[in-house]
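As a warm-up, study this chain.
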Amino acid sequence: MSTDRALTPTQDLVMEVLAARARLGETEWSFATRNLGAITALSKVGLVTWRSHVIAGHVYVALTETGRAEYLGSTYVPPILERIEALRRPCDTFTRGSCRDDHSGRHPGARFKADAYCDPCELARAIDGTPR
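Now compare it with the structure written out below.
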């Protein structure tokens, strides 16, 4: 997702790389100092922050909240966090009382807890008694 800002090709590439890395869970990424002019310009408009790298000739660069909002959207949630949230919710069929699988023996009134829950996280909470 690009922004309407007038960026140079190098600045746009830096932003696209950071956005792609953010989608994979990286909070910062390493760039060669030959790109420092573009990185500094992005920093001045509030899209990125940067710091020295332990490797000579490189810097770490990270998106700011403004940069994340412009390149990822303000409502972006990484896929892994979406998956974790989905695992936290009970499965719809179980909450409606129709989670029945005759092949595996799973149903709400099953003798063993493992057979009474569709969602592994719900099972874990039922076993250790932790609230949702």
